[in-house]
Design brief:
Helix 1 packs across helix 2 and helix 4 crosses helix 8. 71% of the residues lie in helices and 0% in strands. It contains nine helices and no strands.
Length: 187
Amino acid sequence: MDSDPPTITQLLVGWSNGDQEALAQLTPLVYDELRQMARTYLRGERSDHTLQATALVHEAYLRLIDQHSVSWQNRAHFFGIASQMMRRILVNHALARATEKRGGHVEKLSLDEATSFSDQRDVDLIALDKALRELERLDPQQTRIVELRFFGGLSIEETAAALRVSPATVKRDWNTARLWLRRQLAK
């Protein structure tokens, strides 16, 4: 995810315009990156987690290719939407697991560990999702930054490109969102 390869952007635009061959060519180009995003995120989950990276990628990819009204702008836009899809899938999975049996147990979030992408994080996705929905009412841009950085694994620069803002804005909003989320999750 270091640069915006023209081939991916061109294929995304072609796909947006209804070119199914562009989608077929795009799949192998983005699959490995989607899989790496999923692996990075799931690496810190508990060892008995029932959702594997491949299943997460497949489910996210199926949702992505089912998007008919999206006008893909570039690679960063695609991976930003992919990170949102992964967030929704992971939260739904956590909700299902928590309600599977009476009094389902959900691990607590250490936001410092989670937002620094530590390999040792235990994330309460349900609490994080609730806090992010509240943050979205207050500041939608900060919510998108958290999604892109935390769920998508994008760098400050990649997040800035996806949102079409400066890296300084992303850094400032990222720090503000982390502090706000830390307070919310500590309640």
